């Protein structure tokens, strides 16, 4: 029963966690299935049922085209049942209507392929618009960096910066963001405060302020040691194992040295300090050569500015470009992570199942609206990518059947389809059980 002991506190408020898991999953599934539905409709294929969820129907309505729209009691998926289908997976069909042009199996190959591919593509489109919307909403820091607001810091850190200050240099090095930011801060000495050259009300001056990258918690990785210990965004790490930390790099150095040993943290929050003990967990970290490596991490994120910068609007074109880059980055990292697990560079604890995803949903929701919306975008891309895997029962498997039909001029036989679908179901079921085992038993 040890896994239950680990599971219960990590869930925290189970109702809160499940609520946001259902919200995230329902949005992603609805968009995915709507992709199938609308492209099928455009292609001349009639949909009998559009369902969000499985099982007992709790609400339904029929539109003017004769499609039944419904919400079912089990909100862990959904489907579109097209005319002539014998089941929601569009495998097999009703012999009385299968040959009709408005059925899934009787439509031209191009129409069927477009309809199948539309589900994952709509997941990518959802991610694209979310990332684009966030960029348009948040804007980007103006140059030179200008302080809009400052977080609180322990009194031991000298703080003379003020909102409205334009930061020109830190310790004599230009603080160009984002291109030159990391280069500028990498050689800053590790000490409680550093010298800033600023422009304030048109006058240049030198003031003291926190490190450009202090040990300030800007984000919390879901299901990490920091998440389990209830660290919060805005916390400042004062020391680790009695060693004072001033830069975020100090924290990384100490964690790398201790590896998987417990670390005592002194944390400053809202003008008070408290002590907590965390044990770093191995996380898959991309390396310079494109591989991944398991490294000990607390799950504390800090890679940007410790203050809220003044921003300017991002143009539509620039936001579209950056959103596409973000979706492509997630796809590449997901595929690379899977490859690294297969070849053994990183452990399989990096694969989460529904329990882990639910826990992550709740954690991201607790970090704020934008964090949760960003999580939906990331998860939507992952769902779209997973559905393109060439596994029977997934959309990618159907596309493989269509490719076979394009090459041979005929569909696989019903017997072959049944066998392949059974294999696909077994593969997905095994993967799901393995992921749930990770969530509950092996990597709680």
Question: What does this protein structure show overall?
Answer:
The chain is of the alpha+beta class and 444 residues long. Among the domains are: 1-138 and 378-442, no CATH class; 142-210, PDZ domain (Pdz3 Domain, Roll), CATH 2.30.42.10. It is built from eleven helices and 18 strands. It has a four-stranded antiparallel beta sheet. Helix 3 (109-138) packs antiparallel against helix 10 (395-408). 33% of the residues are buried. The model is unreliable at 1-12 (pLDDT under 50). Keywords: Hydrolase, Membrane, Metal-binding, Metalloprotease, Protease, Transmembrane, Transmembrane helix, Zinc. This is Zinc metalloprotease. Pfam families: PDZ_6, Peptidase_M50. It is a multi-pass membrane protein.
% residues in beta strands: 15-25%
The main pleated sheet reads as: 4 strands, antiparallel
What form results from the Cα inertia axes? elongated
Oligomer: single chain
| Number of DSSP E strands | 18
If you compute it from the alpha carbons, what radius of gyration comes out, rounded to the nearest whole angstrom?
A: 26 Å
Q: Strand-and-helix sequence, N→C?
A: HHEEHEEEEHEEEHEEHEEEEEEEHHHHH
Overall mean pLDDT stands at 87
Low-confidence stretches: 1-12
Coarse structural class: alpha+beta
Strand order of the largest sheet: 6-5-7-8
**Whole-Å distance between the termini?**
13 Å
The helical percent reads 40-55%
Provide a count of the helices: 11
Protein name: Zinc metalloprotease
Family: Belongs to the peptidase M50B family.
Keywords: Hydrolase, Membrane, Metal-binding, Metalloprotease, Protease, Transmembrane, Transmembrane helix, Zinc
Domain PDZ: 193-245
